[in-house]
Write a structure and sequence with these properties.
Helix Hairpins; 2 domains; about 65% helix; about 0% strand; disordered C terminus
Length: about 150
């Protein structure tokens, strides 16, 4: 079961206004139009995340559906959410892309410090993003990191 609160980045007791604001923020973050020159992989990633946001918002913004979801989620809290790791990785992808694009940060070590993660974890994330065609080639930590399609 997907964690809709996590997808929107809100706490379980969030107000209706907080849910609306979170949806708007995530929509801006994941909207495919935000990546006009992106390759097919990046657009697919953005579209998939946008769909997740819309589903999460649809459930959490409807009081009846939210109550059912909360009741069902309460029954499954002790079970591992199979998509949890994927959601965390997608959040990291988004954070990295945002940092590179908006903050003009171009080294793994700087991004590692901003995200507060182990250097090796960030480097593996970048290597995976490179294999998936989201980032340009990483030749060294000090060379500029380029998002494909930028």
């Amino acid at each position: 079961m997907k964690d809709y609160y996590k997808i929107l980045g809100i706490r379980p007791n969030a107000s209706k206004k907080e849910i609306e604001l979170a949806k708007k923020g995530r929509s801006v973050q994941y909207h495919p139009d935000k990546y006009p020159d992106a390759d097919e992989t990046t657009l697919k990633w953005a579209s998939e995340n946008m769909k997740k946001v819309n589903v999460a918002y649809g459930v959490l913004s409807n009081p009846e559906q939210r109550a059912k979801y909360d009741a069902l989620k309460g029954c499954h809290d002790d079970k591992k959410d199979y998509d949890e790791d994927e959601d965390e990785e997608n959040d990291l992808y988004t954070k990295v892309i945002t940092i590179v694009r908006d903050q003009d940060v171009g080294s793994i070590s700087l991004i590692q410090r901003i995200l507060g993660l182990e250097y090796s974890h960030v480097k593996k994330l970048f290597q995976k993003m490179e294999r998936e065609g989201i980032l340009g080639p990483l030749k060294s930590d000090v060379q500029r990191i380029v998002i494909k399609g930028s």
